[in-house]
Known about the structure:
alpha/beta, Rossmann fold, 5 helices, globular
Amino acid sequence: MADNTLPDQVAALQQLGARYPWIDTARAGIWGHSGGGNATAAAMFRYPDVYKVGIAESGNHDNLSYEDDWGERYQGLLEKKPDGTTNYTGQDNASLAKNLKGKLFLLHGMMDDNVPPQSTLLVVDALIKANKDFDLLLLPHARHGYGADSHYVMRRRWDYFVRNLLGAEPPKEFELKPQS
Length: 180
């Protein structure tokens, strides 16, 4: 979970930016949900000079606070090393939150039955302790996929990128509705 192919994405962004002058690599944004929420926060913390805006939705930000069958599958059982670290050291986003430079929007459904909201709250706590500014939206009745709140979340996501990457003001409280 620590890399999430991020080194490859950063290299591709830099190469494409060098090849195509219309790609503005100074305004790169990223968003993801669940494992993608983890990757988004990791991108903002591990590559703060590359990614300027991130939207991390329902991220499983620490395999020690997520399902044991996930972390153990990829990192094995918890093993303590002589230097005090473990095989899980450094995989959690909270430990890197102090590196945030750009704009980060964290979202989580409070009724999430896949990734517990505490996973995002670990990152929130670390950002507060590091005195970093960030945005947070907790959805009181949403599960992992947001359900009835999906259209609201999509609008907020678009608005966040428009404000923070384009530098424009989106239409106030534009309402997205499902097709009838």
